[in-house]
Write a structure and sequence with these properties.
Strand content: 25-35%
Strand order of the largest sheet: 21-22-1-23
Keywords: Cell cycle, Cell division, Cell shape, Cell wall biogenesis/degradation, Cytoplasm, Peptidoglycan synthesis, Pyruvate, Transferase
CATH topology of the largest domain: UDP-n-acetylglucosamine1-carboxyvinyl-transferase, Chain
Catalytic activity: phosphoenolpyruvate + UDP-N-acetyl-alpha-D-glucosamine = UDP-N-acetyl-3-O-(1-carboxyvinyl)-alpha-D-glucosamine + phosphate
EC number: 2.5.1.7
Number of helices: 14
Bound molecules: uridine-diphosphate-N-acetylglucosamine, phosphoenolpyruvate
Protein name: UDP-N-acetylglucosamine 1-carboxyvinyltransferase
Number of domains: 2
Radius of gyration: 21 Å
Shape: globular
InterPro entries: Enolpyruvate_Tfrase_dom, Enolpyruvate_Tfrase_sf, MurA_subfamily, RNA3'P_cycl/enolpyr_Trfase_a/b, UDP_GlcNAc_COvinyl_MurA
Length: about 425
């Protein structure tokens, strides 16, 4: 087990290239189950979630070959192999095996997913969708059993705007009989990306990216080639790092429109940002001003950037309030930031940050993926050395983060943890 060490205070300079989107990748890979021949996906990020899903595709009989960032998946020999335990527990997106396997085999057994603990993360809307399409769904000892004689298109209104439920219902519906309409659908760019892949496979989907998606079922889906979109959350994280500790940093391979809510808030804080077609240039700003943010469903401020943004606010002057309306308990990073001298208190679903406070290096633990990102932002700014444990979370979603930061001039490295440190980590 490793820990990440950061010697804070070094200015970041240069260019960082953003990888393919995690939240697209984790849906595109299971979507390949629906094809009858080879699916090629280009630009996949080098993260453990991709590795885990590739292994799961192999567990059900797929052939997966990876060369650099391109993955070839041959789904021809896949079967409805039950996946009640094991790797499915390592990540959230294993729930996409439910929709994809139901769509192809009319049956699936998938263990309840893992992923970041951000408070309760129910999947009732996924199940409501599968049932509306004609599936019988039961929960037996922590695994979801899905079975349908036939899937028939239906009108499904999501009670909660959910990325996972929207994509999962699309996966189950593309081969159903007749028309499915998803109302109150999520509108994230990753949903458009998944719909683009499915359309290239022969699916008939209209309205992805709006809150009403119409899917006309087809009998067969074929192999295709697809290039993934850039990761807006990774891009946002590096943008925040640049605002926190950058001299002049270019974020390359980004779709600036995907980051509008973040960029607007950074500008409000006083950060100077130049936008190109696929780049952002972030300039050093000596004085930042605290702002309030509220996370909302897309296109509002993304909850996945709330935690790194909170760290940046410790550098800004005044009082800022960060409210998370999507995951009201997504504040596990705050105790760790306090160890680093941040002045933050949590009240309900808000964190109130008093700045500016010079941060001090400390031993801290990443409790989830974006908590990890927030500690890295803090470590880059802090005096002295910050030691971060819990790298499994960070490696689920940030490709080559140590190398990318080193290239920007950060002093950052990984070390093996001693046995005692591993024990302390496991007991904490
Ligand atoms: C793999 C992936 O894409 N993960 C993203 C996805 O997670 P995920 O798809 O799990 O998140 P959802 O969009 O489903 O969740 C949004 C909200 O709806 C609630 N909810 C969701 C489903 C459901 O059946 N019932 C229900 O009540 C959740 O508790 C949450 O409060 O979107 C989140 C919100 O943008 C992001 O933080 C995650 O990075
Ligand atoms: C919460 C996240 O991921 P997951 O849904 O995969 O746990 C995230 O990417 O911030």
């Amino acid at each position: 087990m490793q820990k990440l060490l950061i010697e804070g205070g070094h200015l970041l300079n240069g260019k960082v290239r953003i990888s393919g989107a995690k939240n697209s990748a984790v849906a595109l890979l299971p979507a390949s189950i629906l094809a009858d021949s080879k699916v090629i996906i280009e630009g996949l990020p080098d993260i453990s979630d991709v590795e885990t899903l590739s292994c799961l595709l192999e567990e059900i009989g797929g052939t997966v070959g990876r060369k650099g960032q391109t993955v070839h998946i041959d789904p021809a020999e896949m079967t409805a192999m039950p996946l009640p335990n094991g790797r499915v527990k390592k990540l959230r997106a294993s729930y996409y095996f439910m929709g994809a396997m139901l769509g192809r085999f009319k049956e699936a057994v998938i263990g309840l997913p893992g992923g970041c603990y951000l408070g309760p993360r129910p999947i009732d809307q996924h199940i409501k969708g599968f049932e509306a399409l004609g599936a019988t769904v039961t929960n037996e000892q922590g695994a979801i059993y899905l079975r349908a004689k036939e899937l028939t298109g239906a009108r499904i209104y999501l009670d909660v705007v959910s990325v996972g439920a929207t994509i999962n219902i699309m996966l189950a519906a593309v081969k159903a009989k007749g028309r499915t309409v998803i109302e109150n659908a999520a509108r994230e760019p990753e949903i458009i990306d998944v719909a683009t892949l499915l359309t290239s496979m022969g699916a008939r989907i209209k309205g992805a990216g709006t809150d009403v998606i119409r899917i006309d079922g087809v009998e067969q889906l074929t192999g295709c080639m697809h290039t993934i979109i850039p990761d807006r959350i990774e891009a946002g994280t590096y943008t925040i790092m640049a605002a926190a500790q950058g001299e002049k940093v270019m974020i390359d391979n980004v779709i600036p429109q995907h980051l509008e809510p973040l960029l607007a808030k950074l500008r409000e804080m006083g950060v100077k940002i130049e936008e190109g077609e696929e780049q952002l240039l972030i300039h050093r700003s000596d004085k930042l001003k605290c702002v309030d943010i509220k996370t909302l469903v897309h296109p509002g401020f993304p909850t996945d950037l709330q935690q790194p943004f909170t760290s940046l606010m410790t550098k800004a002057e005044g009082t800022g309030v960060v409210t998370d309306t999507i995951y009201q308990a997504r504040f596990k990073h705050i105790d760790e930031l306090r160890r680093m001298n941040a002045q933050i208190k949590v009240e309900g679903s808000s964190a109130i940050i008093q700045g500016p406070t010079p941060l001090e290096g400390a031993k801290v633990k990443a409790s989830d993926l974006r908590a990890g990102a927030s500690l890295i932002v803090a470590g880059l700014m802090a005096n002295g050395i910050t030691e971060i444990t819990g790298l499994d979370h960070i490696d689920r979603g940030y490709a080559n983060i140590t190398e990318k930061l080193e290239n920007l001039g950060a002093k950052v490295w990984r070390e093996e943890m001693t046995e005692k440190e591993v024990q302390q980590f496991q007991n904490s």
